[in-house]
Design a protein that fits this description.
By secondary structure, the protein is an alpha/beta fold. The chain is built from 14 helices and 28 strands. The protein has two domains: 382 residues, Rossmann fold; 98 residues, ANL, C-terminal domain (GMP Synthetase, Chain A, domain 3, 2-Layer Sandwich), CATH 3.30.300. An eight-stranded mixed sheet has the order 2-1-13-12-14-15-16-17. β22 and β23 form a beta hairpin. The protein starts with 30 loop residues before the first helix and ends with a helix.
Length: 571
């Protein structure tokens, strides 16, 4: 059981200067309260601004909400949700792209005392069925056709099989039976200021210990929800604000979905905590991204390492924008983490790691950093260094639990699993419909949660642990995927006797996914046939294989587990 070095406050990851961090939020605070306070302090400042190419996706003309407009809309929409018979505490799922309505909807859900659960836009009927079965939403909000897929139609089809869903709301969608359009809810001129916020949601305002949000993690059995309370979400935002040195003078470009803690905590909540204006981006388009950087006076954004490398090589990182630092969101743990060297960049780089959706870890990138070597120990906000004082718990603490595997003189090596706890980490247990998530999100007696990430500590390198990938998961284009789920999906194709997924590491995509198959006699299945079959089953596009490889056998262990390395040896 290795706790790392003695308690410490790591140096902030961002630029130097006066520390803007304030005391942690009070125990009674809720996440939407930040929006209300910003509306009072800076009513006319731009809060949420659309991507300039919004209309190209059939989502109407781009626009912006000020803090005051967003706050008024959140209150008005909260009243609408309650008027439609949704009770405080119920779950509202959202399958929406990064447009200005999304953060306002989240704030409205919180203001009504409900729980928001963003769903990935890449999910299709297969994944939505699995998600709904775990969270039992009372309502789902979505859009119409987007990037070639009609999301409202898919949500309606899913809702027909889940009686707990009472409402399907949509914006910017064609009229259809079973869907309630709510476009008028976002008309600023109709959002007349109601009574005092606390009065208008009397009986609905939840305690800070109530669940506010669920994001999604991937385990060996598939996706499962990770709930966070208002207090944990606020702590995550405050921690990221500190590490990034964000202030109300910053402009943040958020290109990440709200479905992971790196997108909603390390981006959205961090900017909200700082009072920074947010520009939204959907889906990733390098040219549009650059125009937003330059024309939006963006001072901070976060992207994958491949994008930072491309920006540096093309001369787009400095000189053409007002960026003062940039976040690098790593696919940790993955071998591609070691493929990049940002030691020569002119801008400070902040490394951001998602630890199995239970926490994010940030550090300033320094020359010689290895992508899978991460700091071990406690991480405090500057105002919370005294553990004896109120609110003095660290926002994150990393610890390795395992067994000594080797000794070299006075130095030992410990191999085990990464555990985390802290004020920004889910406290669990989760007691909603998802039995899978209950079994994974139960803290131990000391409050630690098991990330499932393999890690080792060499005591000759104090305060550092090296993590290694979970072999049960594949990382493709920004998303983790259960390899066993792909095995099952591919094996269901009627022309296969057997099938399994395997991957080859790719510097850009993370993993290139392949289908190893044994065709039935007298059949000639093609990759197009398999993709058509999966699409008809409503499988997400990122789960489609890049190639189909015919093999003589699918090697398995005695308990049926696919031996993926042996598949590679065959080819």
């Amino acid at each position: 059981d290795h706790p790392g070095a003695s308690p410490r406050t790591p140096e902030p990851a961002g630029t130097t200067g006066a520390d803007p961090v304030s005391d942690p939020p009070p125990a009674t605070a809720t996440a939407d309260r930040l929006l209300h306070e910003l509306a009072q302090a800076n009513p006319h400042q731009a809060a949420f601004t659309d991507p300039p190419n919004r209309a190209a996706f059939g989502l109407g003309e781009p626009g912006s909400f000020s803090w005051a407009e967003a706050d008024r809309l959140a209150s008005a929409i909260a009243r609408q949700l309650l008027a439609h018979g949704l009770e405080p505490g119920c779950i509202v799922a959202l399958q929406m792209p990064n447009i200005r309505e999304l953060p306002v909807l989240l704030a409205a859900i919180w203001r009504a005392g409900m729980v928001g659960v963003p769903l990935p836009m890449m999910w299709r009927l297969n994944e939505i069925h699995q998600a709904i079965a775990q969270i039992d939403p009372a309502a789902i909000v979505t859009v119409g056709p987007f990037a070639g897929h009609d999301h409202a139609a898919t949500i309606c089809e899913a809702a027909a099989h889940h009686l707990a869903i009472r409402h399907v709301f949509s914006i910017l969608a064609p009229q259809r039976d079973g869907v309630t359009p709510i476009d008028t809810w976002f008309a600023v001129e109709r959002a007349v200021a109601g009574p005092d916020e606390d009065e208008e949601t009397a009986g609905a305002t939840p305690p800070a210990s109530a669940t506010a949000l669920m994001t999604w993690a991937e385990g060996p059995a598939g996706a499962y929800p990770v709930p966070r309370t208002h207090a944990e979400l606020l702590a995550a935002g405050e921690a990221a604000k500190h590490e990034l040195r964000l202030t109300g003078e910053d402009v943040v470009l958020n290109a990440y979905p709200f479905t992971t803690i790196t997108g909603v905590g390390a981006q959205f909540m961090a900017a909200l905590s700082a009072g920074a204006s947010q520009l939204l981006h959907i889906p990733f388009d390098y040219g549009v991204f650059l125009s937003q950087l330059r024309e939006g006076a963006v001072t901070y954004t976060a992207v994958p390492p491949a994008v930072i490398e491309a920006m540096e090589q093309r001369g787009d990182l400095v000189g053409a924008s007002e960026l003062t630092r940039i976040g690098c969101i790593w696919p940790s743990p993955h071998p591609s983490c070691d493929a990049y060297d940002f030691s020569g960049l002119a801008l400070p780089v902040i490394d951001i790691y998602n630890l199995a959706e239970l926490a994010f870890l940030m550090r300033g990138h320094t020359p010689g950093d290895q992508g899978r070597d991460l700091p071990l120990g406690k991480f405090h906000l500057p105002s919370a260094q005294n553990e004896g004082a109120a609110g003095g718990q660290p926002y994150l603490e990393t610890r390795i639990r395992g067994c000594v595997t080797a000794e070299n003189g006075a130095h030992r090596k410990l191999a085990g699993t990464l555990f985390v706890r802290g004020t920004s980490v889910p406290s669990g247990p989760f007691t909603s419909a998802g039995a899978l998530s209950q079994s994974l999100l139960v803290p131990d007696a000391q409050g630690y949660l098991d990330t499932g990430i393999s890690a080792c500590v060499d005591e000759s390198r104090a305060g550092v642990f090296r993590c290694s990938r979970n072999q049960a998961l594949l990382y493709h284009g920004g998303a983790w995927v259960s390899a066993a789920e792909l095995d099952r999906l591919y094996s269901e194709f009627p022309w296969f006797l057997d099938a399994a997924a395997f991957a080859i590491s790719d510097r850009i995509m993370g993993d290139r996914i392949y289908a190893a198959v044994i065709p039935k006699p007298d059949t000639s299945p093609s990759l197009a046939d398999l993709k058509r079959f999966l699409a008809e089953k409503g499988v997400a596009p990122y789960k489609m294989p890049d190639q189909l490889i015919i093999v003589s056998a699918i090697p398995r262990t005695s308990d049926g587990a696919v031996q993926r390395e042996q598949i590679l040896q065959q080819i």
